[in-house]
Amino acid sequence: MTRASHEAAAWVYQGTWQVLTRLFLVPAHPPDLPVRPGDVVERFGPAPGFLRYLKFRFWALNLLDLWIVLPWIASFFVNRWLGLALLPVVVLLLVVPDVLAYIAIHLRYDTTWYVLSERSMRIRRGIWVLREATITFENVQDVRIQQGPLQRYCGIASVIVETAGGGAKKDENPFAGHTGLIEGIEDAERIRDLIMARVRQSRAAGLGDDHHDSPTAGWKPAHIAVLREIRDELRSTSSTPPSQ
């Protein structure tokens, strides 16, 4: 894409983004998660390298455009008027798809959000169909990093989070069943370690155990038994009439 077409695509994208977000009521802010007071929440999107990664992949797949450009250039040597007559066809086959691809790539980048709380994570993406996936850390079975050569070149990686019943064949879909895909981030190791730490914290607390909110958190049965004996003793003492 030339500089002029790149600027034209950027201009078209800004207008398209404003129209689509208003028409389809796309939220301008990342999604929320239910949290308790004091919980730490991280909200972030893909890194700039992810946008470069998507564009590089698109242009690599569009090398077939040369089969259109080269014959068109050759047509000028045969007949200049023939080349000019074919210009609208070349624009329709090359420039228009490039602009549409530019818009689609940026929409994917700008509508992707990741939210991590202390108990769960949420992934949101989409503008025509807004999709969200929520994974509770108590159900996480495996967390790993995936990074191909092109991702390494762009300085990004993906974190794959699998829950019970997850499978490797679902890695490419961030909303596929039991798999969560956090793609296009720079600090993949930190995010992986953070998720694993919160998984261990959730399992230590127990399923559904809001240990921060419980007044008896950390008390053993023996402690509670002693407190009950003291309570019963106080009750019996207070109910005994004073001796005359």
From TrEMBL:
Signal peptide annotation: none
Domain YdbS-like PH: 109-193
Alphabetical list of InterPro entries matching this protein: YdbS-like_PH
Record key words, sorted: Membrane, Transmembrane, Transmembrane helix
Pfam families with a match to the protein in the record: bPH_2
Transmembrane segments: 58-78, 84-105
Domain of life: Bacteria
Protein known as: PH domain-containing protein
Organism field: Antrihabitans stalactiti
